[in-house]
Design goal:
CATH class of chain B: Mainly Beta
Number of strands of chain B: 18
Largest sheet of chain A: 8 strands, antiparallel
Keywords (chain A): Hydrolase
CATH superfamily of the largest domain in chain A: Galactose-binding lectin
Protein name (chain A): Glycosyl hydrolase family 16
CATH architecture of the largest domain in chain A: Sandwich
Strand order of the largest sheet of chain A: 2-5-10-7-8-16-15-12
CATH topology of chain B: Jelly Rolls
Strand content of chain A: 35-45%
CATH class of the largest domain in chain A: Mainly Beta
Number of domains of chain B: 1
GO molecular function (chain A): hydrolase activity
Oligomer: heterodimer
InterPro entries (chain B): Beta-glucanase-like, ConA-like_dom_sf, Glycosyl_Hydrlase_16
Domain GH16 (chain B): 35-281
Shape of chain B: globular
Distance between the termini of chain B: 25 Å
């Protein structure tokens, strides 16, 4: 009797399996037909480029970083090989590319993950790898940031946040990776394809990285909802978090008369008041929010009146700025300062948040401030001035080598101390003379909290040298 | 095990036969014989909102001895067990209570319903994440609690009293459940056990039916419509202690020897949701 039971079971399992794989079921055929339009081809690179697939390296990347390797592969005939350049490689600073379907895209709505096998020549961490980047709108871009590779072949899974959106997706894979500790290395990807696993679940979407962010703002300000991430639980039981494009979400403003939010997550502040921006992904509510506290009309700093011939401008909408390498060097590991720059009616404002120190660099070409040996900038402290306010501005002269370091750099320190004239919620023009030293190779300005000042949020505008 | 091996031998012939059949028609016979007992003799459908039916269930409260023998981290409370929307909800919370870091629930039919043989099944949706250890299981009705007295033959302790685990699940393996028996000489890490893994599905995203069909000298284990194991006296290395009455337990442990402790990714609170428990003969 028991034998019979098991026998029936086995028979049934076979039948069920065959029922799925054979094409004799009318219902499944007609469903396929309705999805027609773009091909549902799941394969990206198994042993060769799949139909329509093209390689497009990023500008500035090493164009030859990608090749097809027939020696090292997970299985089959070939794998995708990526050679990350060493630091200083004249052919390109990093490896990065998109792999795009140039036949117009594919219907990926029937899949739930992108999977591949990968290994590397040494343990390494790929900065970004995902899909949905097409050198167009990148509407449904997904990135797994910090994908750790080992020297053994491992299967990796990148979930699709909401497959129903991907009915015409041409961005089948993209990645970007730089040298690790200055050294290049190689990694291989094989059996790259979309799959329907059914085992990736417990989707938890978030905006602002799941935090409730409150920000002061003004009428006319445009800010983008940031920190768009989604966490999934993989079949391994391990959570995986990916960074995703705004178009997967639906955004909502608690008061559209104060701030409205677009489909792509751009918030536009319209009037004074408070509005809370939240989001949903399908039926799921995203954790985190962005609260806009609009203080009304933005008060611009006093318009500069100095003749442009007397000015070398670093950051201003009223002068032509000298070429600037960066307005935030994100100096690791000690810098905490983030940039939340915004524009009000087209006028750009630098906004440094979570501030401890930040550097602006303008070394290409270097600035000769010998004849314009004064510094001006406008500083605005939203909220309150901390009681321990103490602010340092450092001008760095790169010396004859016109490069940072090299033993010939000199610095001029300018202190902004707490005083009655340091106030919150108003622009403060601050000016210093640099005349005590030669300033013909100026390459950096560094703004810094000193003596444990707890200043965290500042606006800056109209940074320039003058005579 | 012999039965399984025989099946492997014939399976290729079955496959060929079935290929022919399945190409001929799409009409699948969905009545496989996973279970044979269909006379419902006891059930709780959890259709009355509020607290448990006290005529069917009792609570285990507290932390037992040494975390219920497994270094489990939770304190069981009746407050964590609720009937709502036609379902039994056993919720594990991360909260400090009576020295424990978590609270959860454990209910049992001991003294209220004890059964020898039958088909015992429940329809359950499970949580996910490391540290979750829910179970649907049974202990021998003649089990004595407390400290064993070796010279007193009237006291029967674990594992001699026997344990049938119809379903055990670890939240960090969301596609796998375990079905096991524990008895004298084959308990704890030496239990006779088999894992069942879902393909293309998980246990934390929907309801699944977990059951045994149990008779004289055999226990068949099934999940949904798949019979995945049979345990007989030939499979156990000691005395067969399953030809006697057992009572039913539903619980959700947190941490302990088998799952390990929750980690920073583990989501709390989560609920083990039970649609029904049914016994057929």
């Amino acid at each position: 009797m028991r034998n019979n039971n098991l026998f029936s079971l086995r028979n049934f399992a076979m039948l069920a399996l065959l029922g799925i794989v054979t094409t004799s079921c009318e219902r499944e055929l007609s469903q396929e037909a309705e999805l027609a339009g773009y091909p549902t081809n799941a394969e990206v690179f198994i042993d060769a480029f799949s139909s329509g697939l093209e390689y497009y390296p990023f500008a500035g990347s090493k164009m030859t970083a990608f090749s097809v390797d027939t020696e090292i592969k997970y299985q089959g005939k070939a794998s995708m090989r990526f050679d990350v350049p060493n630091f200083g490689d004249p052919e390109g600073a990093f490896a990065g590319a998109i792999f795009r379907d140039d036949n117009g895209g594919r219907n990926l709505s029937g899949y739930d993950v992108l999977t591949f096998w990968a290994k590397s020549s040494k343990a390494a961490t790929i900065n970004d790898i995902g899909f949905g980047q097409d050198f167009g709108e990148n509407k449904f871009q997904v990135s797994k940031q910090g994908l750790r590779l080992t020297t053994n072949w491992v299967k990796y899974t990148i979930p699709i946040p909401m497959a129903s959106k991907l009915t015409k997706e041409s961005g089948l894979m993209w990645f970007a990776e730089g040298p690790e500790g200055g050294d290049g290395y190689s990694f291989w990807i094989d059996e790259l394809k979309f799959e329907k696993l059914g085992t990736v679940a417990q989707l938890r979407p978030a905006i602002q990285n799941g935090e409730h962010i409150i920000t002061d703002s003004f009428i006319g300000v445009n800010v983008k909802v940031a920190g768009l991430i989604q966490t999934f639980n993989l079949v391994s039981g391990i959570d995986q978090t990916i960074a995703v494009a705004a178009n997967y979400y639906q955004f909502l403003s608690s008061d559209p008369s104060v701030a409205k939010v677009s489909e792509s997550g751009v918030v536009e502040v319209i009037s004074e008041g408070t509005a809370v921006i939240t989001a949903t992904l399908g039926e799921l509510e995203a954790s985190g929010s962005l609260t806009i506290k609009s203080r009304g009309y933005f008060v611009f700093p006093t318009k500069p009146t100095r003749a442009s011939s007397n000015v070398i401008s670093i950051f201003s909408d009223h002068y032509n700025n000298t070429p600037v390498d960066f307005y935030n060097g994100y100096w690791q590991p000690y810098q905490t300062t983030l940039s939340a720059d915004f524009s009000v009616n087209g006028d750009q404002i630098l906004n440094y948040t979570n501030f401890n120190f930040v550097g602006i660099q303008f070394a290409n070409p270097i600035v000769d401030a010998t004849q314009k040996a004064n510094l001006h900038f406008d500083l605005y402290i939203p909220g309150v001035v901390p009681s321990n306010f103490d602010f340092l501005v450092t001008i760095v002269d790169f010396g004859p080598d016109q490069a940072s370091g090299g033993g010939d750099d000199t610095r001029k320190q300018l202190f902004v101390r707490k005083s009655a004239s340091i106030v919150a919620n108003a622009w403060m023009p601050i000016e210093f003379s640099l005349s005590s030293t030669v300033r013909n190779n100026v390459g950096q300005i560094i703004f810094e909290n000193i003596n444990f000042s707890s200043l965290r949020n500042i606006y800056l505008d109209n940074i320039y040298f003058y005579n | 095990m012999n039965i399984i091996n025989k099946l492997k031998e014939v399976s290729k012939y079955v496959l060929i036969l079935m290929l022919v059949l399945s190409y001929a028609s799409c009409n699948l016979d969905e009545t496989q014989t996973v279970t044979t007992l269909n006379n419902l003799v006891w059930e709780d459908d959890f259709n009355t909102n509020g607290t448990l039916d006290a005529s069917k269930w009792a609570y285990n409260i507290g932390t037992g001895d040494n975390g219920w023998g497994n270094n489990e981290l939770q304190y069981y409370r009746s407050e964590n067990v609720k009937v709502q929307d036609g379902m039994l909800h056993i919720t594990a919370k991360k909260e400090n209570f009576q020295g424990a870091g978590y609270t959860s629930g454990r209910i049992l039919t001991k003294g209220l319903y004890e059964q020898k043989f039958g088909r015992i099944e429940a329809r359950i949706k499970l949580p996910f994440g490391k540290g979750y250890w829910p179970a649907f299981w049974m202990l021998g009705a003649n089990l004595q609690e407390g400290v064993e007295t070796p010279d007193d033959p009237s006291t029967v302790f674990w594992p001699l009293a026997g344990e049938i685990d119809i379903m055990e699940y670890l939240g960090n393996k969301p596609t796998t459940v375990l079905g096991s028996v524990h008895g004298p000489g084959y308990s704890g890490g030496e239990a006779v056990s088999k894992a069942y893994t879902l393909m293309n599905d998980r246990f934390d995203t929907g309801f699944h039916v977990f059951g045994i069909e149990w008779g004289e000298n055999y226990i068949n284990y099934y999940v949904d419509n798949v019979l995945y194991n049979q345990i007989t006296p030939a499979d156990v290395s000691g005395e067969w202690v399953f030809n006697k009455p057992y009572f039913i337990i539903l619980n959700m442990a947190i941490g302990g020897n088998l799952p390990g402790s929750p980690n920073s990714e583990t989501v709390f609170p989560q609920t083990m949701i039970i649609d029904y428990v049914k016994v057929y003969q």
